[in-house]
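Meet my pick.
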Amino acid sequence: MRQVHQLADAIAHVAGLNRGAEHDQALATADQAWGKLLDAPRALIDAVDPATLAGMLREPAKIRAAARLYHEEAVAWAGTGDPVLAQRGYHRALALMREAKARDPSQEDDDDAAIQELTRLASAGPR
């Protein structure tokens, strides 16, 4: 659980960097957070399908953290002017939130709100 709290702090830091329009730093910080979340090469994390990634993360709290991290990365990519990578991030975040909800429906209200927002973002641009 401690790891999840550390990840929440890292994600909040990335979000703060995004709010300050420091998108390149947000991406670098997010990349470091992925290293804390999973002991796997980033290329592998991005290459596996969301269901497999959820299986690698195992715990619904970690799956939700990964979804939030993808979301913040997408915001950063949008801020750098890369809508394709932004949309990819929104889609992966949405898929992971759905995986988390399927594995642990106890957070239904929070998950539903996140899924609704990510659905809006994911459908707003290129795929």
